[in-house]
């Protein structure tokens, strides 16, 4: 069983907002995870130390179900809001408080509880038993991924929601939830469906699926811009950036995720429930997010792309990289699959026609003979990103175009020991540590591998998966993104990241034991 370092991997529990972490001075501190709030502002208790006489009892080891201290003391969760110390003959000392530990002592929460460590161990054993078989060399990291998924489950407005991370991302984000559901389908398809339902239950009347569902409501529009856009706009207007309310969502992968859940655990009733909402979402992109009316949807805001700080946005806050209409073309095919399952053959045929027509339009207007162009307003963005390759996701490209994209993927621009950088290795804007400006993100690799298989390039997909699994296995943890040169955590990446855990787990499971 893997252990927790109490820094990158805090001690926490499914359903709990409490995190027990190691401070620089060797003590422990406890904070509460809240939406858009730093942990330093939500401290519950700090400076925690245990003593027997004058001897300090330090942490011996931390596990998913408990923290063991010298002297036989144990800290475990009795419930989401309750932490209990078990042992005898010790003192717990913290900033502003002190108490004797004799048997079972409630450190945070209310009441005294018996048998807490045993119950916590049984609870975690039950969760880990749901992890399907994986290769032995991947097992420790897969167990860490499985733990990450569990501890990132919290209650948001009365519904169990899987958040990206209790370190900073305490809300149910749109496309994160699709990736989370892909892993959950293997053990708890009902919970996977619930992640989709939460988003669709908050869909706007115009069809937009919100960016975030959080403790205080939803985020479906914003005046905010990433740092690159703020700097650019400030230059244009004498230091005061232009602000306007813009709708925000995330890339249209809802039907894709719904179908993956259905393939693992068929449920026609769920398909019937979500189908009209998926149709409304698909229509939104062409009715509300195609400002020039050319039939190719655009991201109206960087946040809607999910690639907030990509250099694509250095030339403006509205863009049309090749991934968006590729996702929409695949969505048409997944709507057709759902319609077929529901016995709506005519609708299915219409969706297939739309999938091909959108793919053909992308080729006609955006294929240069070498690559698919990214437009930022009316300007062609020259930066090279793996989004150039995402039309493979459609599975509908002519072979000569697909071959060209695969060759580009396998070239030194994108291929290496740890592919795929989010800006090409040979692009002058490549930065291996800066968010979407060079690091490897698991969702990009996962979507590319999915598209490669759909386009008939199974060998390339298999190699990409193999290299991705090796990078995560050997990289030290489950991060938001990885430095492609070192294979380790990129400097500013969040730890314990939900979709990295989910997609690693799914790839490990589907790669076979």
From TrEMBL:
Domain of life (superkingdom): Bacteria
Keyword Ubl conjugation in record: no
Pfam family, one: MGH1-like_GH
Keywords: Glycosidase, Hydrolase
Stored InterPro entries: 6-hairpin_glycosidase_sf, 6hp_glycosidase-like_sf, Glycoside_hydrolase_63, MGH1-like_GH
Residue ranges of every copy of the Mannosylglycerate hydrolase MGH1-like glycoside hydrolase domain listed in the record: 169-500
Coiled-coil intervals: none
Family indicated by similarity: Belongs to the glycosyl hydrolase 63 family.
Protein's name in the database: Amylo-alpha-1,6-glucosidase
């Amino acid at each position: 069983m893997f252990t927790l370092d109490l820094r990158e991997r805090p001690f926490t529990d499914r359903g709990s907002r409490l995190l027990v972490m190691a401070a620089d001075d060797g003590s422990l501190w406890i904070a509460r995870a809240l939406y858009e709030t730093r942990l330093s502002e939500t401290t519950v208790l700090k400076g925690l130390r245990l003593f027997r006489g004058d001897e300090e009892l330090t942490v011996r080891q931390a596990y998913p179900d408990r923290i063991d201290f010298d002297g036989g003391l144990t800290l475990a969760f009795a419930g989401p809001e309750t932490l209990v110390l078990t042992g005898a003959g010790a003192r717990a000392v913290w900033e502003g408080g002190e108490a004797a530990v004799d048997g079972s002592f409630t450190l945070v929460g209310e009441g005294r509880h018996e048998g807490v460590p045993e119950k916590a161990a049984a609870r975690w054993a039950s969760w880990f038993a749901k992890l399907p078989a994986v290769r032995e060399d991947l097992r420790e990291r897969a167990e860490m991924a499985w733990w990450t998924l569990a501890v990132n489950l919290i209650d948001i407005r009365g519904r169990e929601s899987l958040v990206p991370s209790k370190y900073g991302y305490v809300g149910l984000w749109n496309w994160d939830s699709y990736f989370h559901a892909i892993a959950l389908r293997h053990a708890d398809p009902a919970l996977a469906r619930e992640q989709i339902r939460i988003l669709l239950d908050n869909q706007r009347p115009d069809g937009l699926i919100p960016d975030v569902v959080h403790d205080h409501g939803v985020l479906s529009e914003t005046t905010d811009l990433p740092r690159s856009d703020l700097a650019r706009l400030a230059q244009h207007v004498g230091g005061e950036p232009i602000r306007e309310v813009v709708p925000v969502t995330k890339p249209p992968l809802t039907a894709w995720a719904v179908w993956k859940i259905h393939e693992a655990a068929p449920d026609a009733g769920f398909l019937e429930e979500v189908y009209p909402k998926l149709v409304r979402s698909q229509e939104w992109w062409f009715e509300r997010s195609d400002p020039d009316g050319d039939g190719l949807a655009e991201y109206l805001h960087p946040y809607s792309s999910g690639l907030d700080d990509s250099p694509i946005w250095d030339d403006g806050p509205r863009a049309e990289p090749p991934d968006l209409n590729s996702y929409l073309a695949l969505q048409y095919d997944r709507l057709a699959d759902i319609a077929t399952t529901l016995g709506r053959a005519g609708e299915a045929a219409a969706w297939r026609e739309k999938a091909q027509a959108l793919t053909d339009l992308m080729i006609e207007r955006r294929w240069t003979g070498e690559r698919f162009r990214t437009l930022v307003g009316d300007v062609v963005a020259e930066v090279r990103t793996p989004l150039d390759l995402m039309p493979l996701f459609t599975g509908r490209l002519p072979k000569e175009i697909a071959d060209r994209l695969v060759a580009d993927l396998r070239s030194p621009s994108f291929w290496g020991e740890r592919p795929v950088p989010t800006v090409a290795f040979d692009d002058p804007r490549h930065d291996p540590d800066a968010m979407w400006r060079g690091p490897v993100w698991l969702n990009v690799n996962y979507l590319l591998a999915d598209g490669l298989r759909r386009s008939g390039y199974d060998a390339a997909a298999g190699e990409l998966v193999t290299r991705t699994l090796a990078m995560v296995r050997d990289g030290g943890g489950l991060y938001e993104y990885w430095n492609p040169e070192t294979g380790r955590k990129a400097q500013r990446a969040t730890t314990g990241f939900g979709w990295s855990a989910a997609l690693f787990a799914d790839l490990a499971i589907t790669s076979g034991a």
